[in-house]
Amino acid sequence: MPHDALSGRPRVRPDAAPPPVPAPAAPSPGAQPPIGTPPIGTPSTGHPLIGMFDHELQAPLSILLELTRRCNLHCRHCFSNSGAQDQTPELSTQEWFAVIDRLAAHGVFLIFFGGGEPLCRTDLPAIAERARGHGMDLCLLSNLTPVTPAIARRLKDIGFYKVEGNLDGATAEVYEALRVTPGSFARSLAGIRNCVEVGLPLRINCTLTRLNAEHMEAVAALACDLGVTDLAFLRLIEAGRGGDNFDSLDVGEAVYRAELLPRLKALRQAYAGHMDIGYEQDEEIIRACDPNQMMPWCGAGRIHCTVTPDGKVKPDHSFPDDDPRVVAGNVRERDIIDIWRTAPLFQTLRHTRFARCARCRHVACTGGDAFRIYTHYGAVMGGPDPRCLEMEATDA
Ligand SMILES: C[S@@+](CC[C@H](N)C(=O)[O-])C[C@H]1O[C@@H](n2cnc3c(N)ncnc32)[C@H](O)[C@@H]1O
Ligand code: SF4
């Protein structure tokens, strides 16, 4: 099941037929169960979800390496507080090599390179080639404004399987209301065209805010014209400058559900067969899916994690760098795999269960969204998810 690059949550078409439930295969003699599978006969939750509770992953499936907090833009919604003047003491090329080698040795197979703007690091190609040399799959999260035809060709040659850019508006006026930097819209369009030209698979994100929500149909039309086949509308994360500006930028839950979701569903249908359109629909996914077919809804510290430019290991990109309670360790001081396996923070994320969840049928929910819980209670797994599905059903 595809996971959203940013949230790590599963992305499924709401109108897709549920996947067929395969008949259990007879194990061949001596066969090892896949990672995360409960040993046969072992009492467990009864739901073989990968990377949670009794059966932890020994290494993350995927990881986001934030190479820098430097950025050529200074967007009003940036969750990582990135910008031109950033002074974060970044890991060196060799330090990133060491991290990548350890991840590869433990079977991590997907690396996202993000930031900041990862193309601000001139050693990005070398770091990416190191990972590709281990056979890892690579995805680049970039604002694409630096992507010339030559850079697009280089990324293609390195073997990036996907590049993620963005279109937060269909005109310079709307786009730059959020991205602030004059000329960034035109440069982003050029970067998108350059990627399409060399055949780099693209996903384009549009973070929905009050500035652009009324233009999302125009964004979809422009993306399709540009040759994009994968477009995702993201909800604003209340972190970094996105947190500072949340009240003025966020569309609000009621508007999202009542007004934007129906339009997003209509857009998805209108472009079916031409462009895949994704959007946040977590509740629908959890309700619709067979729990035994799913990985945990929130993968933070359970199936993936994030390394910051200065080596901090966090559950995912949303958590702040400067709250020690949400930093599991630092790769400058400890081995990344050791941190993944033993950090008390990750143990808390994996093993906290709320009384309300004990008999809940939404098994894949695994206690809710770790970042939303942290922001709501000001504590890691400080209480049940404020948007608990079971509570909503009871209250309805
Ligand atoms: C942090 S950026 C890094 C890559 C690149 N610099 C960029 O902006 O595309 C990755 C993605 O997160 C989005 N993003 C940034 N801040 C966000 C926020 N507070 N909420 C939701 N998405 C956000 C960006 O628009 C972009 O699509
Ligand atoms: S959202 Fe992306 S482009 Fe904008 S400041 Fe942050 S890292 Fe840079």
TrEMBL record:
<dbReference type="GO" id="GO:0003824">
    <property type="term" value="F:catalytic activity"/>
</dbReference>
<keyword id="KW-0004">4Fe-4S</keyword>
<dbReference type="InterPro" id="IPR050377">
    <property type="entry name" value="Radical_SAM_PqqE_MftC-like"/>
</dbReference>
<dbReference type="InterPro" id="IPR007197">
    <property type="entry name" value="rSAM"/>
</dbReference>
<feature type="region of interest" description="Disordered">
    <location>
        <begin position="1"/>
        <end position="48"/>
    </location>
</feature>
<protein>
    <submittedName>
        <fullName>Radical SAM protein</fullName>
    </submittedName>
</protein>
<keyword id="KW-0949">S-adenosyl-L-methionine</keyword>
<dbReference type="Pfam" id="PF13186">
    <property type="entry name" value="SPASM"/>
</dbReference>
<dbReference type="GO" id="GO:0051539">
    <property type="term" value="F:4 iron, 4 sulfur cluster binding"/>
</dbReference>
<dbReference type="InterPro" id="IPR058240">
    <property type="entry name" value="rSAM_sf"/>
</dbReference>
<feature type="domain" description="Radical SAM core">
    <location>
        <begin position="57"/>
        <end position="272"/>
    </location>
</feature>
<dbReference type="InterPro" id="IPR017200">
    <property type="entry name" value="PqqE-like"/>
</dbReference>
<keyword id="KW-0479">Metal-binding</keyword>
<dbReference type="Pfam" id="PF04055">
    <property type="entry name" value="Radical_SAM"/>
</dbReference>
<dbReference type="GO" id="GO:0046872">
    <property type="term" value="F:metal ion binding"/>
</dbReference>
<feature type="compositionally biased region" description="Pro residues">
    <location>
        <begin position="16"/>
        <end position="41"/>
    </location>
</feature>
<dbReference type="InterPro" id="IPR013785">
    <property type="entry name" value="Aldolase_TIM"/>
</dbReference>
<dbReference type="InterPro" id="IPR006638">
    <property type="entry name" value="Elp3/MiaA/NifB-like_rSAM"/>
</dbReference>
<dbReference type="InterPro" id="IPR023885">
    <property type="entry name" value="4Fe4S-binding_SPASM_dom"/>
</dbReference>
<keyword id="KW-0408">Iron</keyword>
<keyword id="KW-0411">Iron-sulfur</keyword>
